[in-house]
Amino acid sequence: MTHPTIYHIPVCPFCQRLDILLTLKSRRDEVDFQLIDITHPRPDWLLHKTRGTTALPILETADGHIIKESLVILQYLEDIYPERPVAQRDPWRHAVENMLTRMDGEFFSQGYTWLMNQDPALREALREGMLKQYAQLNDFLLEHAPSGPFLFEDFGWAETVFTPFFERFWFLEYYENFVLPDEPRYARVRAWVEACIGHPAAQQTTREEVVKLYYDYSKGAGNGALLPGRSKSSMAFEPDWRDRPWPPKNKYEHSATDAELGL
Ligand code: GAZ
Description:
This protein is mainly α. It folds into two domains: about 5-80, Glutaredoxin; about 90-200, Glutathione S-transferase Yfyf (Class Pi), Chain A, domain 2, CATH 1.20.1050.10. It is about 45% helix and about 5% strand. The longest helix is centred in the middle third of the chain and has 22 residues, at about 125-145. The protein is globular and about 55 Å long. Ligand 1 binds near residues 14, 70 and 71.
């Protein structure tokens, strides 16, 4: 084996990070991407490589080592392809982008918790929680990069980490009617989000794909799990999402059937 191999799940935000980094480095073709269908049990050969864990992405190095965790894999790719660095080389600047990167977990879990919520009484609190996350990002960017749109001169490390989440959160717009209010306290983060989503290296997915594949998440079933009464997950490879209708938006009132989802 001469190239590293990345085992990934389509539309997984952690996997998209790797794709973005490699695209920024013009190295996308030097890594073999192998798609894993999350709606079926993991094959034994893959579980053998991971020693039983199921989370993806993982990277298998050219000499057969396994690396788990998207941020660790990103750093590995940054190290083996040092030309066109994506991370900052100056220690202070690198610390700044790492501080922002460390805010990814709370941001991600607030968004997914809201998407997966099934109790209408919790909606307002979840909206507030999401706004608080955006306000924190806004504040960080105002402190470290007031003029923007990116944290530094161009789309870099922190943008690689966050952009997949910005694109997944299209599902909040669709299923929860969430839009970032047009207010000064979100203006800086809004400019960042828009610049990130519009960047040529971050075009791996679309609003339509995200909305269609994440229908089951919006009903509380994550990671390819099956909802009651359904025989197929909205994360399935077949039928292709392009051939399916847009799902119903009223997740709190209605549970769509396989047929309604075009599955
Ligand atoms: N920290 C890991 C990384 O690589 O950065 C996270 C990787 C990960 O969670 N991968 C997911 C996976 O492989 C796919 S993307 N899951 C299958 C499995 O068997 O573990 C994750 C959540 C969540 C909602 C959504 C996702 C998600 O909680 O997008 O929790 C971890 C999974 C509400």
